[in-house]
Amino acid sequence: MNDYRVPVEDLNFILFDVLRAPQQLADTPAFVDADEALMRQLLDEMGRFVSGMIAPLNRVGDETGARWQDGAVTMPPGFRDAYQAFWQAGWPALSAAPEHGGQGLPAVLDAALYESLSAANHGWTMAPGLLHGAYECLRHHGSEELKREYLEKIASGEWLATMCLTEPQAGSDLGLCATRAVPQADGSYRLSGTKIFISGGEHDLTSNIVHLVLARLPDAPPGPKGLSLFLVPKFYPDGTRSAVVCERIEEKMGLHGSPTCVMRFDEARAWLVGQAGKGLNAMFVMMNAARLHVALQGIGLLSAAWQKADAYAHERRQMRAPGARETSRIIEHPAMQRTLNTQRAWIDAGRVLAYQTALELDIARHHPDAARRQQAERWCQLTTPVLKSACTQQAFHGGSDCLQVFGGHGYVRESGIEQHVRDARVTMIYEGTNEIQAIDLLVRKVLADGGAGLCALLDGIRADLGKGALASAVAVDSDRLQVLTRQLVAAGAEDTTLAYWVADDYLRAVAMTLLGWAGARIEDATGSAADAQRWLDATGALRHWVLPEFDLRCAIIGQRLPVPPTP
Known about the structure:
- The protein is α+β, with helices and mostly antiparallel strands.
- The chain has helices at 8-18, 21-24, 36-54, 58-64, 79-88, 107-120, 122-125, 131-141, 144-156, 279-315, 334-366, 370-405, 417-425, 434-446, 452-463, 469-494, 498-525, 532-546, 549-558, and strands at residues 67-69, 72-74, 160-164, 180-183, 189-199, 209-216, 227-233, 244-249, 260-273.
- Among the domains are: 8-141, Butyryl-Coa Dehydrogenase, subunit A, domain 1, CATH 1.10.540; 159-277, Butyryl-CoA Dehydrogenase, subunit A, domain 2; 434-567, no CATH class.
- A hairpin with a 2-residue loop joins strand 1 (67-69) and strand 2.
- Helix 6 (107-120) packs across helix 10 and helix 16 packs antiparallel against helix 17.
């Protein structure tokens, strides 16, 4: 099947007609030069680069894979040349600050870039995927000396970075981390331990790799509060190699083009990043950025699967569709239209939500008004776990539905779609499992402030609604979700386990409400669309076949409440 083509016109419509991104950023002096013309030009160039250079490497990355031998990892053919072209063209530095060699452009453009890269070649994109988070982590928490040595190289993408958290006994519970760092007289540390599931821990794409590692000081208390963050490069400034060894790479279900490494640190010389015992604070700057990028991976992978399935459905003839007199194309069958329109609805609405979240990140970091920054930060805190969970789950299950369009041909490698399903599965696991996202949303963010933040967000989207069919439905669901939230706050005070039983259902109910808002925004903008029916088909599918899940989730939660929620 054909390689992925970046749907630049779709991205333009969502950014400029639906979200009106330049207008949202107009009051932010940092982006005064980022007008619509510049953004459109950049998206056009991005489409050409990703479609022309990165997408054609997807299959060889899957079939050849990364290869390990004697501690060294060789990437699939073409990967290194593509990466060198990528960073030298300035793509990793889009949103980095100009003083660090970046272009100072809005993060929403970075979001569009990484969604497109993930759709085109998820395995390859894993390599630069952590650059933005590593840059922000070092920028905010690194010493001046570390910034001078590493920040510009990471910002430009000349050097790649890793995030070393997980250990054999410490997965979601990072408090079990056993890696140790011993202080030295010169202010450095000697770091020892083993980390697993380290994406890009070793490769031949760049001349250096910067590892950000969670470890425990000798006098640190047990649990997560005793963790500190350290920087260990593959090569030190004097050219000597650190005592960091890649013991092996994992044999995985998917992402064969990305080496998932077991990394051993043998008293490797390291430097503290941020304050001792505050490692998770520093790391979560990196983690939150990574979670939005994982949501974008989900959207991109579903887009890639949909693109293949839609093309096949327009070509393949099977049986007669209802009312037809001869053998029909698959796309003419209602069941296939429903499948494809439903997945497109998820892609469109997911993009609106993810790009709006990226815009809110820009506003939270750069807007001159403190109240607006706080509002933007609340949006990001609440929507990021929802996006990460909902978009990645749909990437896998929706990708499987797209495979179904092919019938038996989808199950064989030749079609190319089975790779998307395999590659998508891990997105539901890494950067915090989807179950962790649900607990984070309900327990740590909604119940923690008595539901005030979530209700304020719902008030905001309700005020933003137009007058279409979706808008009316979302207004009702928003009110119901506020009532449900208040009931959970009250019931949770009596039953401390309740939130953990219903967290997944609550996150899905929030997701349905946000998706409905996104669909309503699309409906409002279709008057300016060149192909209005294409967008209305998707919003119709959203209304008929996606959003009814809201009622199901409310009913499930209601069964566990002492007083059923108000209809």
